[in-house]
Each structure stands twice: as C-alpha cells, then as structure tokens.
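User: Please predict the structure of the protein below. I'd like the answer in structure-token form so I can feed it into my own downstream comparison script.

Assistant: Understood. Taking the following sequence of 73 residues as input:
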Amino acid sequence: MLTLPEVILPLVVAGELLFGAENSSRPLQNLPRYLEFISTCTVVPLGRETTSIYARTRLISCLAVISSKVMRG
C-alpha cells in the first residue's frame, strides 16, 4: 500500500492557498478542493514576529503591484 508523506504547511501558506481559491475565477469549485487538501496537512502556527514580517512583506508587494499598474496607465 502506498503511503503519502506528511505535508506540513505554515499557517501563512494555508492562508495564501485559501486566498488563491477565493480570488480565482472559479472560487466555488476551488475552495472545497483547497480546504480538503489543507485538512490532510499539518498546519503549523507561526510566531508573532514572523507574522508581522510577513504582513509587511505582503503589503509592500501589493503596493508594488499597484504602483506598477498605475505607471503603465
């Protein structure tokens, strides 16, 4: 019998997967699939400092995308 290895996801990765599902062109089809996948994984929490750094990094990347779109017109 084939056994799959344990998949470990940081909490932020699980959140990004759900964001991608919700933000996709087919959220009603994708969200249940992503939720099912995540339920088979071990989701590990992150410390407060890591989550703060992630939030700032995500904000900077979003602002860069917006700025790029504005500059292109």
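That's the full token string. Residues 8-72 form one domain.
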